[in-house]
Specification:
Layout lengths: L6 E4 L10 H7 L5 E3 L8 H11 L4 E6 L1 H12 L4 E7 L8 H30 L8 H14 L1 H12 L15 E6 L7 H10 L4 E5 L6 H4 L1 H13 L1
Parallel strand pairs: 1-2, 1-3, 3-4, 4-5, 5-6
Helix pairs in contact: 1-9, 2-3, 4-5, 4-6
Length: 233
């Protein structure tokens, strides 16, 4: 198509490019699609800086979960380079002390040889309650965990723990923005998506039915349709 726009996708915690595989094909009609490497640094500013160094001059940006935290950092560092923004199952708030404590426990367990068990413990919060026995989705989480590895998992958690509060920056977001969540996201409540959408000028809020924290693989067609509409806007 004319005026093709590069699209940059950022996965979440312990997620690899596999998470976007079911929706990528629908996005290529709008421009070249890249999945960012978000596992090399342990601080949001450094992760964003390295992604920006490798990204096209201007692009549409979608961040899922932790990828949304990185997207906020990209908007702090280079807002002029982002033509459109999609915030998928994420939040603008910083870590709570309780969340940080849970992360520290997961990091210690992963480093102590319990990485697979940590992934198993995360899985029920990743998917809609109706999919907690879905062996293929559980295997995907394990496969992505292997893609990431223990050391990068720990770096990601460190970056998440130290992330800033992005709520003060929401009103400054001027590009077309999509906020998407699932109706039963038990990792990041969709109430936090509503909060973001309410504070971003002209943001479009979509809450997918029968969906948890992983819309790209739980509701791939609906997610692809929403992202296509966002790119057309």
């Amino acid at each position: 198509m004319d005026n093709a726009m590069p699209i940059l996708l950022i996965p979440g915690l312990v997620s690899s490019p596999r998470i976007y595989a079911p929706v990528v094909q629908a996005l290529w009609r709008f421009g070249p699609v890249t999945v960012a490497n978000h596992i090399r640094d342990g601080h949001m500013a450094l992760i964003a800086r390295r992604i920006l160094a490798e990204a096209p001059p201007r692009f549409a940006l979608a961040g899922h979960s932790m990828g949304g935290y990185i997207a906020f950092e990209i908007m702090r560092q280079a807002p002029e380079r982002v033509a459109k923004l999609a915030l998928l199952n994420t939040q603008a708030r910083p870590d709570t002390p309780e969340a940080t404590a849970r992360r520290r426990t997961m990091m210690a367990r992963a480093k102590g040889g319990e990485y697979r068990a940590v992934l198993d413990d995360l899985f029920p919060g990743f998917v809609h309650p109706s999919r907690r026995e879905d062996a293929s989705l559980r295997q995907l989480v394990h496969d992505m965990g292997e893609d990431i590895g223990v050391e990068a998992f720990v770096r990601q958690q460190e970056a998440i723990i130290s992330r800033p509060d992005s709520r003060p920056a929401l009103a400054a977001l001027k590009c077309p923005t999509l906020v998407l969540s699932g109706d039963e996201d038990n990792t990041i409540s969709n109430a936090l998506s509503v909060e973001m959408a309410d504070n971003i000028h002209n943001a479009k809020l979509v809450i997918l039915p029968n969906c948890g924290h992983l819309p790209q693989v739980e509701q791939p067609q609906a997610t692809a349709d929403v992202l296509v509409e966002w790119l057309w806007s």
